[in-house]
Amino acid sequence: MLTQGTALLVGWLLGAGPSPAAGPLVVTQGDTRAEIAEGERGLSITLTAGARQARWTYDGLSLDPEETGATDAELVRAGARRLLLVRAYSGGAHCCWSLLAFDVAQRKALGSVLESQRPIELVEGGADCALAAIAEPVDREAGLPAERTLYCFQRGRFRPRGPAPR
Amino acid sequence: MLDREDVTGRDPAPGLDAPPTVKVTEDLARVAAAGLAPAADVGRSEFRGTVVEAIQDVAQRTGSVGFVSAGLAGQERPRVLEPQELVAAIERAESSLGPAAERRPVYTIGEGGAIVNTVTGRTEYVPVHTEAGKADLEKAHVAAPVVGTPGEGARAPDAAPLQGAQPPPAVPIDERIYAPRGGAPREVARHSHYNDPIQHPDGEPSGISRRYGDADRDTQRRCMDLVIEKGRERGMSDHEIALTLAITRVESGFNPDAAAGSTSASGLGQFIDRTGRPYGLDAGNRWNAGAQADALVRHTQDNMALARSRGHGGADLDRYTYAYHHDGPSLAYGGLALADRHVVPRIAMYEEYVRNHR
Lengths: 166, 358
Known about the structure:
The complex is a heterodimer.
Chain A: E1 9-12, E2 25-29, E3 32-38, E4 42-49, E5 52-59, E6 62-63, E7 73-78, E8 81-89, E9 97-103, E10 108-116, E11 121-123, E12 132-135, E13 149-154, E14 157-163
Antiparallel strand pairs in A: 1-2, 2-3, 3-4, 4-5, 6-8, 7-8, 8-9, 9-10, 11-12, 12-13, 13-14
Chain B: H1 26-33, E1 44-49, H2 51-62, E2 67-69, E3 80-81, H3 83-97, E4 107-109, E5 115-117, E6 123-127, H4 131-140, H5 217-233, H6 238-252, H7 273-276, H8 289-309, H9 317-327, H10 335-355
Helix pairs in contact in B: 2-3, 5-6, 5-8, 6-10, 8-9, 9-10
């Protein structure tokens, strides 16, 4: 997981656990603070960088309900960009996961930059990829076998690189 | 729903270069007994994919229990392979040819589920319970009459010709209601239940493995009956129960022990741990088919209510109900297309089963 050296502090304000009653998830790094709250209607994300603040809501989404061991939100660097990444879940019986991305410097939502029918993993991308992830494409059309796929973040989205290494 | 990889066979299977042999399975014999009734027209000209994808698509939508190679139809004893065996054999053959030969999306699906190579224009495989498949089998004299009825020890004499056979006995239940066995996942995530041991109290419905559809017919029927029972208890109409059965079919293949490899999804409705909890599923009853059926019925009712509240009633209700099951409230992840392909076409079949189940 791409957590070491990126997310300086990840913590729950009010106890552990991702249920709405547990309180918002807070991620901080320097003067940047992100607060992700789960409510009855969906996710509320507040990003504060210095004196400026922005807020977004996503109806129907929750934080990743699977116990994968990964944190649900991280502040990461992708080349010159600093991003807030949030692993969101759509609320289906067993599908689907989205990675929501926010440009910290511009306080701009990039939206859902990756969708998956399994929990999304952030991984080391190697020399030519500042930020990589492993996901399984959501089967939109053909009922095809899904591949565990490696993606690289480029030009504002995660783009497929091919089958993920095992 | 199980991982898509779970319906991709990876089992050892006969290679394509093996000598032709006859494989008349019990399922195939039952198809023969049922008179090889034509499948619903699954022709869909816009399909374009690999041969494996085409086979899986046709098998899913028709419930076909076997495919015959059209190119072998003139031979005396062509092979008839179950979908997963055929997929495994093709994948093995492709891998021996190298990466360039793999996954070429040049196949389409023709009338009756025939799988057509668009480059050569030739039909390469046909599902056995279509008219085309029947013709191939008759030519090859490989189909066998069957004695008995499903669930009562049907047996298939070896390689007896179909032509001239006595009219088959009545088959009370449409064979298509049963799900075929899926493949094993390519990997198992830490939070998956795939490697949990299968343990049940005596008499409780039990799968054979954690694969999609890997439960014997008695178990599959008992799971269908549990869905019907729970649906009636909770006031569902026959049609709504049939929709729930069609959802069960696509999610688990009526295997109460089915588990996905990449998520914690498990059981008849393939709920991940967290989404099953509000419907009463927990570590203590996760593998209990009755608890699973009740959870799925309640979840389906909730999704129907959500669909109606958003104006998706009438003919759209079934589609949206499954889409909410798959996608959640956002409807942004392809659930409607999956409903159109895998759920809606099977509702009428299960509704007939429900009507006859009193």
